Predict the 3D structure of the following.
Amino acid sequence: MDSPAATAQLDLGTDDAAHEVLRRVFGYASFRGEQHAIVSHLVDGGDALVLMPTGGGKSLCYQVPALVRPGTGVVVSPLIALMQDQVDALAALGVQAGFLNSSQNQDERREVERRYAAGELDLLYLAPERLRLESTGRLLDRGKIALFAIDEAHCVSQWGHDFRPDYLELSVLHQRWPDVPRIALTATATEKTREEIVERLDLGTARRFVAGFDRPNIQYRIEPKNRPDKQLLDFITAEHPGDAGIVYCLSRNSVDKTAAMLNENGIAAVPYHAGLDQRTRAANQSRFLREDGLIVVATIAFGMGIDKPDVRFVAHLDLPKSVEGYYQETGRAGRDGLPSTAWMVYGLSDVVQQRKLIEGSEGDAAHRRQLQLHLDAMLALCETVSCRRTRLLAYFGQPGEACGNCDTCLTPPETWDGTVAAQKLLSAVLRLKRERGQSYGAGHIIDILLGKQNPKVLQYDHHELSVFGIGTDLRDTEWRGVVRQLLAQGLLAVHGDYGVLSITEAGNEVLFEGRRVPMRREPERAPRPSRSSRGAKAAVAELPAADVPVFERLRQWRASTAKEQGVPAYVVFHDATLREIAARKPGSLSELGAVGGVGDNKLAKYGEQVLAALAEES
Ligand code: ADP
Ligand code: ZN
């Protein structure tokens, strides 16, 4: 057998073997951050819990030990739709990998089972529901297991946002195969989720590796939502023309409408949500992974673990339910480490809508309270006047300093003393309640403050209230900002289908105990960050102009090669690798082999073609 795994199991020390695999199979000169410690720990048979941000390099943490240790690394992953691409990417490196999930027919499954039992597989990917089947247990016993890797381990947590009941079964791994080392990995975990992973997966004695969660190449920006379609168009045209991106919407309907709107404006986009039939969904996901510069408009059903390394932006047109969700979704941008943007618009209607979802959600009062806490944290992030990244990292328990690469750092928002405005708005809410026994949504309250004699005001004699017209010093959009901030600060609450407002305990302190209310000023329109910090065409932007034609030539070669083989372009080479080749212009196979991401297998397979493409006259 000439699998690279065999090469690695020479009589080298395990450290040497790990480096050898890293260099020859993956084409990388050195481990990153904690990778080396994690790999050594696993190779030596230890259990590990690994928390690393998206793009941090989690896959190598189990792939290298799986190749170094005798036997097959068994990877449990909920990402069934991605297994084929993962296996293809490994095959391109010369690694023997297979998967078992519900998408296969019986023949395909039998063949993978045969290869596993015969000891031919370095890695076997399994859908979690497989592990419930006794037949899977028997199958695993027929081969040798090098390790168990539990990917997206936060799926075991009911507190988190991606809960999968099948993950609860994963504790059987340790009971049935107590001597096989396990590694659980996730990119999102608060302290609470982390503890839940340890407890439910029985990882009490596992060594914990917590990497920094920062994604410095992602620029975070949150703007007030006015005309979301136009804002999105402006954002893409100005900053990310021709780039691949993900646009998240809450409802299927707005996904469809937004995708159509982009296409009408000449921006190629495909929709993705659970209401589309399986075929269309798979086709759209596959196009997104394979084509350069396509946009996918999606509900959160899309994208967990999307491996595409060159997603240049993630846009949210609706408010995510939690900071964890937001961080994971935005984390799909810039896995290759190149500049990328996380951009969101949010408005009052989002708060009303989310609140409605919480009230209508199944589960008990405690569960709803939990959802509300998630929402509160998200609102606080939106309305913060300090660095967004610092707040995000703090949410995951990591201290940090102002980052210089988020909207609040780049254009610090003005703050003002909003106490009087808050008092006006709160007292309008209170008077309607006390004097009339009525509750209203923000729109009507603001109309009263602005002194608008519209039919609804006249019908209910609201122009006779003492608060009528006391708020003409602020514009309508500014009042909406005030309401949002009062909600974010917990001074107001919103309920029901119509989003009616009520005062909280803390809100009463503003009216009766002189509590101050600092606020951030609503910008007329959101400022654009400086050009240098933009992600636009990042892959090309940082290359010297002279190298750009070479890079483009290599990209064309990659596109046609990927198409021929029916794999995503990044499976052939990542952008980062092509950039390095374009910059260094290697003249021989051995020089090419020294480029990051060019391992033995890819060198043998593509080396001559790449050198030929380089030699071509432009
Ligand atoms: P994660 O699963 O944590 O999101 P990946 O495993 O997909 O991250 O790795 C992210 C990117 O970093 C990939 O393009 C991968 O090839 C690259 N990478 C990982 N480890 C290294 C390393 N030691 N040296 C160079 N590149 C690496
Ligand atoms: Zn910042």
